Amino acid sequence: MHYTSNLWFFRYRFAILGAAIMLIILGIIPFFWVQVDSDLKNYFPNEMDALKNTKRIEESFGTTEPVLLLLCSDNVLKKTTLKRFSTICSEIEEQEWADKVISVFNSKNIHSEGGMMLVDEAIPFYPENKAELDQLTSLIDNNPLISGFLVSENHRYMLAMVSKKPNSDDKQINESISNILKANPGTDDILVAGEPQLRAVINKDIKKDLVILLPLGILLMLLFLWASFKNIRAVFIPIFIVCISIILSVGLMPVLGWKLSIISILIPVMMLAIANNYGIHFVSAYREELSERQHDDKKVLVQSVFRRLKYPVLLTGLTTIAGILTMVTHVMIPARQTGIIAGWGITAALVFSMFLVPVLLVLADKKHFAPQSKKERPTNTPLVLDKMSRWVTKSPKLIIVGGAIVMIASGYGISRLAVDPNSENVLPAKHEFLQANTLINENFGGSKNFSVMIEGDIKDPALLRKIDSIGTTLKSLPEVGNVISIATVIKTMSTALYDTGDSLCGKIPDTREAVAQILELYAMGGDPSDFEQIVDFNYEKTVMSVQFKANSNADYKNVFSTLDSLISDIDTPVIYGGYALITYEMIDAIIRGQTYSLALSVVIVFVLLLWIFRSWRYALLGCVPLSATILIMFGMMGVFGFSIDVISAMISSIVVGIGVDYTIHFLWRYRLEKQNGRNVRDAVYKTLTTTGKGIIINSLSVMIGFVVLLFSSFAALKSFSFLIITALLMCLFFSLLVVPALCIISSKEK
Q1: Which domain holds residue 699?
Q2: Does the chain have fewer CB atoms within 10 Å around its N or its C terminus?
Q3: pLDDT greater at residue 86 or residue 204
């Protein structure tokens, strides 16, 4: 009883078990209330200028993120193709969620005949023969409001843009369009793109990932732990802690009113990878004690393990939590939530490992944990580990030089590091959505769009010329494909109204009265509401729609910096917004915040290490693997073409949180061996051949946890999996090779 009297949880073990069961039940209930949020705009803070401007524009002119329907055919102007697509567009426009459909079927052909401006339908007839097909083709090609905007110049693609009503459900939109397409079959493909479609796809794939990845991850972890321990009870305890942490972490989200996103889907995977660490250390150490002291009472053995591991396990847990919590500095809301929820889940895993695991070990018969053969005994040092440990003690300088060379070489990769601002690239390269985007980029000037809203007297020729100048300059950029504005429309009207040789042909009139007259003439043959998408009823506000393509952050920067310089010359209120701008500002903020959060996490870890070891030398040694790993990881990303995106930007915080554990365990045991009288080389060897084995098992279990992301539906999560596994391997390399070598080199012993 002497061994347990001072450890209260032994005396209250049944109360601890009861409390654990109660918490699990309470966590399971909200676990099933979890909802998915695929609206990427909800990922951004409300105070963003781009988000506020976008909302202002949408209040005046409707949504800035239409659903895009792309018709693909050998010739989209054929009768059967046109009739089918017309039916589809009409049925979609009748849907409750649809506001307006912009297509060739409701567009106009503004042209001149007999010195008069006429307004006809863009598709006045369905061609019955080749002559009529040629005639229709000519009409489309000579219509600047259609050619290159709604019909591709090669006539193989046709575009329709569907504006949705506010607060429409993306899932409903997706299902509605899918049903309409099924009800109107044809030989030509119709692809669906646009932000609402992207959200629907992400929503569907997040749910699919949850159903597949979590069971698969648990299965892989079971297989790994069985290969490590070959003991069912030794496998059960870490997995039990993992399940508790997943339930309590994910279950907290609906309680706080948070939803699962493409970022926070990492939470159960992080629990799977990280939460078993502490249980593994206790179980591994307990089996080691059993091998050496088989006849001792199990309570004595558990207390011995607890006394030896309580501080390193507690401290590694705290540093991991601290590293993960630096994610709260992230700009994206789901990333902040992921940091908080993951921090809570790891805290729960740490608490249960510190108190529940010893209780489970005490309640179980020790023979159930004892190695069944000599090969299973933890005291047997694997040959590879023994050789590695001897090599470290004999060649520390060579190891340090090798590590330094790798770090220096990574500088080349960092110089090539790129940023991916396109959220759709989270999807696999062959996804239908990306195929549609590629075709729109190639044939319609770009799948990205933003809107510029200008307030003032829109009929003022001076303002119209400034609007036209902005559009012309933007159109000259290689990234910009199409620009539609009220100035474009008025110039088209003047082309139809005046003869080719007239100085006013294709120009904006010189007086406000002349502008008003042109618009009145149009109203006589057309419908004034045709332009409600680009100008308000009182002609006090107008919006310019810009289509562009962007494959890099530099493309976005070129477009928006050019726009900034152009609107600086306008003395009336001008704002611009749209999802493309929101994405650009978010990525820009992420890059700025990446350096801050990374520096903060390293500083926090350094301070914690200084507090733990009360030694500047040990604190600096502990930061070596982290700093080197992050440097090499970013270098590797540059070399192999991985870009920084909204998901990969979180890797550094996670790596810092996990990777510091390895160094703490090594330095803690190394210091203990030194205190027991061993010289520096013997202390390094002993630490590597004992604690080193646990560190390797721990590290491999974390990697196994993240391996499951390779089976994700999202390309970004697959890349994340590869990168973080590689980073953890680097961290393990520096923790078990470079840090021990530095301990030897920096020691005062000769």
Answers
A1: 8-41+200-415+584-746
A2: C
A3: 86
